[in-house]
Design a protein that fits this description.
The longest helix has 34 residues, at 150-183. A 4-stranded antiparallel beta sheet has the order 1-2-3-4, covered by helices on one side. It has a 3-stranded antiparallel beta sheet with strand order 5-6-7, covered by helices on one side. The relative contact order is 0.10. Helix content is 42%, strand content 16%. It has helices at 3-15, 25-34, 46-52, 63-66, 68-73, 80-98, 125-142, 150-183, 243-249, 252-260, and strands at residues 194-199, 206-213, 216-223, 234-237, 264-271, 274-281, 293-299.
């Protein structure tokens, strides 16, 4: 998720009283909710960023270590209550990131498997609305003359977090329904070998489907409010294996993207003097409009 969402979740947890009477507790909680993203420093190495971001600092096993960072940055006295509060906020970060198509390596150092639930975009305006309402409602209340009591602020924060969980649960169910609809379809007379659904815009009722049938990939819209048309969308043919693809697979950029992506599409184009090879992640783009892609020209 984006850092505004993480920050607001930390603030709501602080207002719920998770940090107790810890001095600078709210600041600590907001820092803790963002602490796993310290690995964003790897952005300067774009190729390896996909390997390193959302890896060790986002893993469950390393969360107790990461939780020490916000205590130090906020200059909070180490107590059992403060540390457990920071740890709770740190753990919300990978749990929220897990819901995105981007993926996260939750089980390091025991497994490098990248897992993802695919039902929430990295930036979701509905989540912003829920959390910003929880953050600013006490401010608006104060404009009436007297600010809300501590108990009222706590209830508002609890309501915001409950609404967040409810919204995520609704999107989880909608995603499962979209996948079920695609799995039940026939594509050129054949059942799919694999289907994926990822968010398409801000509506929880519209999804972007990816359907694989042999060497063919279909990218199509899936609406939960209308009839599903398995013939809709665009159909692409995977490039067959060959020396050019084999050569591209040996380069660092392609190796990193292969580890990152679980919806790989290979495309080859003859160019002067060689072959242009593209590896495209279909969860985050398409052959017509690549999002995450590795490109190389293999010279004959």
């Amino acid at each position: 998720m984006d850092n505004l969402t993480h920050t607001l979740v930390g603030l709501m947890m602080a207002r719920c009283g998770v940090a107790g009477n810890t001095v600078r507790g709210a600041g600590m909680m907001m820092l803790a909710a963002n602490a796993p993203d310290v690995d964003a420093i790897t952005w300067f190495d774009r190729v390896n960023y996909l390997d390193y971001h959302r890896s060790y600092t986002h893993a469950f096993a390393l969360a107790p270590v990461v939780a020490l960072l916000p205590l130090a940055l906020a200059r909070v006295k180490f107590t059992r209550r403060a540390y457990l509060a920071a740890l709770a906020a740190v753990l919300t970060h990978p749990l929220l990131d897990w819901t995105n198509p981007y993926g996260i390596q939750l089980y390091l150092p025991f497994s490098k498997q990248r897992t993802m639930l695919d039902f929430i975009n990295v930036i979701d305006p509905w989540i912003w609305l829920i959390l910003l309402t929880g953050a600013f409602l006490p401010v608006l209340w104060s404009l009436r003359g007297s600010g809300p009591s501590g108990g009222t602020k706590r209830r508002i924060a609890v309501a915001a977090l409950v609404a967040l969980v409810g919204y995520e649960s609704m999107r989880f169910s909608a995603h499962a329904k979209a996948v079920e609809i695609m799995q039940a379809g026939l594509y050129d007379g054949a059942p799919p070998t694999r289907v994926l659904a990822v968010p398409a815009g801000i509506s929880p009722f519209v999804w972007r489907g990816v359907v694989e049938t042999g060497d063919t990939v279909r990218v199509l819209p899936v609406s939960l409010r209308g009839d599903f048309d398995p013939t809709a969308g665009l159909v692409f043919q995977q490039a067959p294996p060959g020396p050019a693809i084999d050569a591209a697979k040996r380069t660092p950029a392609f190796q990193v993207l292969q580890r990152f992506s679980r919806a790989q599409f290979w495309k080859t184009t003859a160019v002067e003097g060689g072959t242009r090879v593209e590896l495209i992640d279909l969860r985050l783009g398409s052959p017509d409009g690549p999002g995450f892609a590795a490109v190389s020209t293999v010279v004959r």
